[in-house]
Amino acid sequence: MTITIKVGSNVLTRADGTLNTERMESLVAQIAELHKAGHKVIFVSSGAVAAGRSMIKNYTELDPVAQRQLLSSVGQVKLIDQYKQLFDKHQIAIGQILVTKQDFSTREHYLNMKSCIETLWQSGVVPVVNENDTVSVTALMFTDNDELSGLMASMMDCEKLFILSNIDGIYNGNPNDAGSEVIREIEPNNNVAQYVQTTKSGFGRGGMQTKCKTAQKTAASGIDVYIANGTTPDVIKRLASGDKDFVCTHFVAGQHSPAVKKWIAYSEGFAKATVVVNQGAKLALLSHEHAASLLLPGVVAIDGDFKKDDMLLIKDGEGTIIGVGKASTDRAKISQLSDTRHAKPLIHYDYLYIYPNEII
Question: Which helix (DSSP H) or strand (DSSP E) does residue 16 occupy?
Fold first, then answer.
């Protein structure tokens, strides 16, 4: 089995911001057990910035970007050193991978990253992945490590993604209300936006909203996703074994997506231009009955310049993003067409990703 495991800052740190080494040791022991049983694991770990907070005292005098750079730079050393010591106890080597969103900006970069992970797996090494906050540009940062974990799971065609937070899953109301319960299973395209809390975690960048969005997108590509409480004893073992009594939220895998579509699904941040489509084109693209490419007659506006193979955002008339895809031609060539009815698709279906219905 291939699994991506993401652990959030609130799972790895104590209330004072210091690393919870006992919990880290437990999580590592569970990953080691999976590794020794022959499973391939990608470990996406937050905690660098939180670890840095416990080491640097005067960071509050800096601006937010400088704070993140300082704390992540110092904290990442402490974090990976701690993991090395813990995995060493199980005679397992780890490989540190620090990435930025820009590392996935082209198909070439994407495949190079995939090759790196495959090499580590073939060599019996557990990849430990984190965003490189030290050099990440704010405009091209991952929403948080939830988004990064979804990208890694999709890239490596994993069977499962575990997102471990400090909450049991997605609740059908406010988690603090006595009558609220964890939604145990969410089918593809189900709308759970009404239940998701928008508050962010104390030490992380994201919140339950980004976890849910990542889970929906990743599950739609054919991967089972679980949001669970990482502070629960044996959480990884219970998820991996398929323990039906374990309380968590399972996003059921949808239809398996081709590899190129999985890359395109996470490429909206690299779009060079935006195309606005009419209602007819929108309905055709969202239809589940047949595959549809984006045809030029359905485009009512284009905002921005682009070349062939550039990424394009697709929006409806109300400004809602409905998809992203790779341009089949240059904008300049489109402008030269006197009749678009017989032109080739602007975005062919094979290079088009439409977001799941009701995604947050």
Answer: none
pTM above 0.85, yes or no: no
Query: How many CB atoms neighbour CB 266 within 10 A?
Result: 25
Torsions phi, psi for 180 (to 5 deg): -75, 140
Which residues lie below 8 Å from residue 328, measured CB to CB, with a gap of 6+?
A: 308, 344, 345, 346, 347, 348, 351
Q: Which of 182, 247, 170 is nearest to 209 (CA)?
A: 170
- Give the whole-angstrom CA distance, residue 347 versus residue 353: 10
Q: If pLDDT is split at 50, 70 and 90, which confidence band does 135 have?
A: low
CB burial of 115-153 (b: ≥16 within 10 Å; e: otherwise) equals eebeebbeeebbbbbbbbbbebeeeebbbbbbbbbbbbb
- The CB density around residue 48, as the number of other CB atoms within 10 Å, is 28
Locus of tokens 């437990």: 26
Q: Output 151 or 125, whichever has higher pLDDT.
A: 125
Give φ, ψ of 95 to 5 degrees: -125, 125
- Of 71-80, 138-147, 206-215, 225-234, the one with minimum mean pLDDT is 138-147
DSSP secondary structure of 230-278: TTSTTHHHHHHHT-TTS--EEE---SPPPHHHHHHHT-GGG-SEEEEE-
Write down the H helix ranges in the chain. 9-12, 21-36, 48-53, 64-88, 107-122, 145-155, 208-220, 235-241, 259-265, 279-286, 331-335
43 by Cβ neighbours in 10 Å (0-12 / 13-18 / 19+) ranks as: buried
Tell me the pLDDT tens digit for each residue of 272-324.
899 999 999 999 888 766 778 999 999 999 999 999 989 999 999 898 889 99
Rounded CA separation 14/20 (Å) = 6
User: What is the rounded CA–CA span in Å between residue 215 and residue 212?
Assistant: 5
Alpha-carbon distance of 327 to 273, in angstroms, equals 10
Q: Which of 159, 132, 169, 130 is nearest to 12 (CA)?
A: 130
